[in-house]
Amino acid sequence: MSLEKKVDITENASVGSSNLRKDGWLEHSEAERKRVLRKMDFHLLPFISLLYLLSFLDRANIGNARIAGMATDVGLTGLRYNVIAAVFFIPYALAEVPSNICLKLFRPSRWIPSIMVAWGLVMTLMSLCHTYQGLIVARVFLGLTEAGLFPGITFYLSLWYRRGDVASRIAIFFSAATIAGAFGGLLAYGIERMEGVGGLHGWQWIFCLEGIVTVLVAFLGYFIMHDYPETAHFLTPSERQIVIAMLKEDQQGQATHYDFKFVLQAMGDYKTFVQVGIYIGLLIPVYATALFTPTIVNQLGYSAANAQLLSVPPFVAGCIITILFGLSSDRFNRRGPFIISGCIVSLIGYIILYTQTRPGVSYGGAVLAAVGVYPTIAIALAWAGSAAGGDIRKGVTLAMVIGIGNLGGVCSSFIYLKPPRFHVGHGTCMGFLGLAIVMSLFAMWDYNRLNKQKIVLCEREGIDESRQGEFAEMGNDSPLFRYTL
């Protein structure tokens, strides 16, 4: 049996007296805890995974549209495609911190569907672009409107799950990105056949149909998204109390209210920028994979249609490994070792791509590159969130990590310039994977050092959980806060 501190909510009276101890603690078994977590998973994860699938599909379909005829029809010569791919990430990065603050100030079930409607409309109207300049403007607004979803959902999950449970959940919803990569290729392969229908090219129909689906799903979000455990109707009063109690204990007395000083704490913490370094080292290869896998496969000698189809297996394999890594990371409560091992696998893939000329072998390298790096993103975000104490500090930290990291998408957009070998692109990805490995090793060493210092301080000063209130506004600087390695 495990014991969780009782939370003072209105439904306490409806909880059976047999579940409450005289000292005010809520008693529940491990089986009950797992049952409640499974119920939350069932009600939360499928829909938010669908949201992220649509998000990643809408931002990455530019790669499929390129080889479906967009490059020729719009005259994307020289660096024009790279510019179109890159401009998305600038407003995307800048809007993420404000968006996560808005998520906390407003209801998630209103904020997230609203930004979805906005980017879905932009995506749909992007099908009407006939010029290079029009595509640039559309991609800028797509980045601005889509910015809040990924950091928002990551923050949203941290408000429902304990730090030790969240990596596998982020992995499940992030695996939607790998499914989007696979599904995007299949979808583009079919939609290309609509060439000329309604006076639109096949690549324009890719934008139009995928944008319409996003808008329709967004409207569903207003009715089926849940805000917080305290207000979740699918939880019974006793289940709600168990969830809130677990979160209270996991928060270690950290503040949950908004105060601008928490924003400043996150921005001034060097550990935030360590996590930024890890994330940007991972994200540049991830975006390069999403934006250029169809092009890379095409340059290996496969036709455009076959390149669309052959871009599917790397993402399918990445999806499976992402979920397995996330589950294992939560089980062992470790983040750094899983990031490092994934980077090593991806490095092997890029080395093969860099050195080999045979299409079959090089394609195998592309699969390894995707399989290795995709699983690390979810774990890196879980690590960044668990290294920040308090709701606002955590939300801002995650938004900074994701926002600054996404500027790496600008880099990803300009490194694959010289076909068919793409030595600059593959070499750049290898370099940033090396950065992620080095920064992960530093973070593990630093967090272990800080944990030992806090343990010594608590023992010397007699600090225990009964004094949590004294340190509520210190975030992860609290002597009671412990970092995950």
Automatic annotation (TrEMBL):
Protein keywords: Membrane, Transmembrane, Transmembrane helix, Transport
Named from the GO MF annotations, one term is: transmembrane transporter activity
Q: Which InterPro entries match?
A: MFS, MFS_dom, MFS_trans_sf
Instruction: Report the PROSITE patterns cross-referenced here.
Output: MFS
Compartmental location = Membrane
Would you tell me the Gene Ontology cellular component terms? membrane
- Read off the Pfam families from this record: MFS_1
The annotated topology with respect to the bilayer is:
Multi-pass membrane protein
Where is each Major facilitator superfamily (MFS) profile domain found? 44-454
Q: Which Gene3D superfamilies does the annotation name?
A: MFS general substrate transporter like domains (1.20.1250.20)
The record lists the membrane-crossing segments as 42-62, 82-103, 115-135, 141-159, 171-191, 203-225, 276-297, 309-327, 339-357, 363-384, 396-417, 423-445
The name this protein goes by in its record: MFS general substrate transporter
Q: What is the lineage of its organism?
A: Eukaryota, Fungi, Dikarya, Basidiomycota, Agaricomycotina
